[in-house]
TrEMBL record:
It is found in: Cell membrane. The keyword Transmembrane helix applies. Residues 72-425 form the ABC transmembrane type-1 domain. The lineage of its organism: Bacteria, Bacillati, Actinomycetota, Actinomycetes, Kitasatosporales. The chain crosses the membrane at residues 16-37, 76-96, 108-129, 305-325, 351-378, 406-426. This is ABC transporter permease. It comes from Streptomyces caatingaensis.
Length: 435
């Protein structure tokens, strides 16, 4: 057989061989991708039952339903914010860790969240964002910073006895109904003090009369186990230290004092004839931190959890691209007088542009499909405010009001949103292949 005939036989058999190898992959692609897409487009033109043809009514509802419009707005926020921040953090981490000896260990720690599933990450951050500072890490830190610069109320929620001779003011303060008299002690019994705030206080001491001065005691008028006389300092009742008291006359504060460790206070002779006032700052509820999972902050909080997971992914890819950057170019820029910031901005970042493009495009596609974190982290009261298209697709298709026609329309909308990003990515890959 001639050489030409042999070549013809090989050429003719190659398409068949290629088809044999591609057939399983094409079958899977058709069954898992092409058919579901086609069926979703077809199903989007029918009603909830799947029997009645409704045309473009489902698409009209997609853009008129308030829940879906909120989900679309949140998706825009996700696409604009999350990929950019994750890529920026990854770039900073990759550049900085290249210069330190423990860079590998740092990269390992930053990349470690990628080993955690979205479900586990959602549970972790649901606890991190707990409103109670004793349970939520975010609010524990936030409250700690706040309390460093702003004094908290010593006894939040406390108030006098109804028959204690003090009346509530509109601003939350309490003022005595009778005037103070020099040499006559003024007892100030309080109740409803939370145990953790009174714990560790000394026993209260009855006030001692001092000529020409107004004295008194502020204490927790409660005896453990019952007993005691209301309005009188009984043995074992706790003093309330750090309470500010004021003597007020004609709307003006003429004297003030703070209770000591035994609950006693002393006002000068100027307080004679005035009324005793306990400012509202003594009883204001303590700062509880930010409402991370409230309607306002729920989406930024969930984006923060996403960045915690995916910044390591961006860092690893960028670090790999950074390893291929020619060091001669960086050194040449430094020799020409460029400082480190100029080298980073004018040389490093442009050389890393292809890698940064890969990272951003990958994360954009990923956030358009975000579902797990939103569903797990957002509480039921804030879920409508944190809604995204993938979550709305699930709720419309399988929630309480099942409408798979509407869910299919949302799926088609997601496909339309993802297609431009995919096309850009394919063109970029082809362009890189020609080089």
């Amino acid at each position: 057989m001639s050489t030409r005939a042999t070549r013809k036989g090989v050429v003719r058999t190659r398409p068949l061989v290629a088809a044999a190898f591609l057939l399983p992959a094409l079958a899977l692609l058709g069954a898992l991708v092409v058919y579901p897409i086609g069926y979703s487009v077809h199903r989007s033109f029918f009603d909830a039952s799947g029997n009645g043809f409704v045309g473009f009514d489902n698409y009209h509802e997609v853009f008129s339903d308030e829940r879906i419009r909120t989900a679309l707005k949140n998706n825009v926020v996700w696409v604009v914010v999350a990929p950019g921040l994750a890529t920026a953090l990854g770039l900073v981490f990759a550049v900085l860790t290249e210069r330190v000896r423990w860079g590998t260990a740092f990269k390992l720690v930053v990349f470690m969240p990628m080993a955690i599933s979205m479900l586990a990450a959602g549970i972790i951050f649901r606890l991190v964002y707990e409103q109670d500072p004793d349970r939520g890490v975010a609010n524990a830190v936030w409250v700690g910073v706040h309390d460093t610069f702003a004094a908290s109320a010593p006894y939040p929620g406390a108030h006098p006895r109804p028959d204690g001779g003090l009346a509530a003011d509109p601003d939350g303060a309490f003022t005595t109904t009778s005037a103070l008299r020099a040499g006559s002690p003024a007892p100030v019994p309080l109740v409803a003090v939370k145990p953790r705030y009174a714990k560790g206080e000394r026993d209260a001491q009855p006030p001692r009369a001092e000529p020409g001065k107004v004295t008194g005691t502020v204490w927790l008028d409660f005896t453990r186990g019952g007993g005691g006389t209301p309005g009188r300092v009984d043995p074992g009742e706790k003093a309330l230290s750090g309470v500010k008291v004021e003597a007020v006359r004609d709307g003006r504060t003429v004297a003030s004092a703070t209770t000591g460790a035994d609950g006693t206070f002393t006002l000068p002779a100027a307080a004679d004839g005035a009324r005793l006032r306990l400012p509202a700052a003594n009883f204001a509820e303590r700062y509880r931190g930010a409402e991370w999972l409230g309607p306002t902050l729920v989406t930024p909080s969930i984006i923060g959890a996403y960045i915690w997971m995916w910044a390591g992914f961006a860092m690893v890819l960028i670090a790999a691209g950074l390893a291929g950057v020619p060091r001669e170019l960086l050194e040449a820029a430094r020799v020409d007088g460029a400082n480190e910031w100029q080298v980073f901005r004018r040389v490093t970042v442009p050389l890393l542009a292809p890698v940064l493009g890969v990272v951003v495009i990958t994360l954009v596609i990923n956030v358009l499909k975000i579902f797990d974190l939103v569903y797990i982290i957002a509480p039921g009261s804030s879920l409508p405010d944190a809604n995204v298209l993938a979550l709305q697709l699930y709720q419309s298709s399988f929630g309480t009001a099942v409408n798979q026609g509407l869910g299919s329309a949302i799926a088609v909308l997601l496909l339309v949103l993802v297609l431009p990003v995919v096309i850009v990515n394919i063109r970029r890959i082809r362009k890189e292949g020609r080089r």
